[in-house]
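Sequence in, structure out.
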Amino acid sequence: MNVKSLQKIVLDAIEKYRTYRTDTQLRLLTLNGENFKIEFVGDFCHVCGVSNDYKLVQYFLEENGLNTAVTHVSNFDDGFVAEFRVVK
């Protein structure tokens, strides 16, 4: 898959996420080959943890035919960065 197609799918997933979680801001930080990072900033459920948030993005990616694995999550004060890898 070329970078432009991948970027379109990722940005579409971010937009769909925003329709469900208006209290959280997402931003595509990097997209290199088949790896990309998304920054999540906002309020998160302390009981559920952040995995529900990046799994929701994964669900929207899968709807568009893109299977991914989350390879790393880095937390910071107001949010986290999830690193994704395309899985074939």
